[in-house]
Amino acid sequence: MVLFAFADMVHMWRVWSVAGLLAILPLGCAQIKQISDALTNLQRLQFKLGSVREFRLVGISLADKSSLGDFNPVGDGLKLLDAFRTGKLPADFIVDLEIRNPNDGTQGRSAVPATLAGLDFRLLIDDQPTVSGQLDREVEIPAAGVVTTVPLRISLDLYEFFGKQGYEKLINLALAIGGKNGSAARLKLDAQPTVRTKFGKMTYPGRITIVDREFRS
User: Fold this and answer.
1) Would you say residue 16 lies in a domain?
2) Maximum CA pair distance of the chain?
3) Could you list the residue range(s) of the whole structural domain that residue 195 is in?
4) CATH code at 132?
């Protein structure tokens, strides 16, 4: 089996796509360049996970919590323990998706914005696949490296995926993601973006893994 890097896949896809269009359409040089630019811009969009916010576990806000000891043992602590015993620990939060379009008009290309028309994704926590979702609106991404933040609302039952770890580890996992000192470090998105161009919607030929450490395309 031969494996190709994503950039190689996109390059091959660009060649095939342009070749196919040339075979069926009487295009001029300007139109050919526009098609090539559109495919290049599709490849160049970059994604990164930003902050995690508004994390609620069984309806309890974790914004001011950093450890199990921060929960009132009679109130919120008892509510969490009761939920765990019933085999359900629903979590709801927002993870900010940061998108960058580095197209700056160099290399003979126009500095034009890109429109993210869709994003099919699956959330991974500690590399464990969990829930899937889709971007519910189109987003314009300006050119020249300006970062656009898109909030993604996530809802899942943490017990369903991590209940076997035990009560304390499960609460600490939630705190590491959405607590007072929480971050997206333990999250990843396995995603497949779709971009709208003047030639219609174009979907990435493969999936990408979006993390919080760096922008990826």
Assistant:
1) no
2) 75
3) 45-210
4) 2.60.40
From CA 155, how far away is CA 3, in angstroms rounded?
Answer: 34
Low-confidence ranges of the chain (pLDDT < 50): 1-24
Structurally, how many domains does the chain consist of? 1
Residue 14 pLDDT:
45
What per-residue confidence (pLDDT) applies to 17? 47
CA angle (211 as vertex; 179, 39 as ends), nearest 5: 145
Q: Residue 20: inside a domain, yes or no?
A: no
| CA distance readout (Å), 186 to 51, 157, 174, 210 | 12, 16, 10, 12
Q: What's the distance, CA 207 to chain centroid?
A: 11
pLDDT of residue 41: 56
Strands of 109-186 (E only): list them.
Answer: 114-125, 128-134, 139-141, 147-157
Where do the DSSP E strands lie in the chain? 46-57, 60-61, 90-100, 114-125, 128-134, 139-141, 147-157, 187-197, 200-203, 208-210
Helix axes 6-24, 29-44, angle to 10 degrees: 160
Cβ pair 80, 58 in contact under 8 A: yes
